[in-house]
Amino acid sequence: MYSDDKLDKNDIGKADGLKNDIADAYTREKINNEQYEELMKGISIQYEEIFKKENDSLNSLTDNEDKMKLLNKIHSDIEDAYSKEKVKEKHYNLLKEKISDYENSHSVNS
User: Fold this and answer.
1) Distance (Å, rounded) from C-alpha 10 to C-alpha 99?
2) Are 14 and 1 spatial neighbours (Cβ–Cβ below 8 Å)?
3) Among 101, 107, 94, 12, CA closest to 67
4) CA spacing 20 to 30 A to 52: which of 37, 46, 60, 77?
5) Is pLDDT of 84 > 60?
6) Pick from 103, 108, 110: which is nearest to 64 by CA?
7) DSSP state for residue 85 in the 8-state scheme
8) Whole-model pTM?
9) Which is it for the CA torsion 10, 51, 44, 19, positive or negative?
């Protein structure tokens, strides 16, 4: 996280590390299931914020081809994060909805 306390795609590595640390603590029984679930929910929220900011960055692009490339990358990144259980189902669905809303409002099809 940067000094502005805002998450962006540069923070994915840090979130990955934190997720791994939490999983390791749970495996070693240093935290209980309830603590684990709450911490993982917090990590999922961080990933959601990162992906929402990336999606919002589509508005700064003027070239439709660039928008399509970034949109496809965002789709792929979100699918990957969900498949690796970095993002909870609730946050995954919210992200997919945000992308769909963007596509519908900007006549973009992936």
Assistant:
1) 20
2) yes
3) 107
4) 37
5) yes
6) 108
7) T
8) 0.77
9) negative
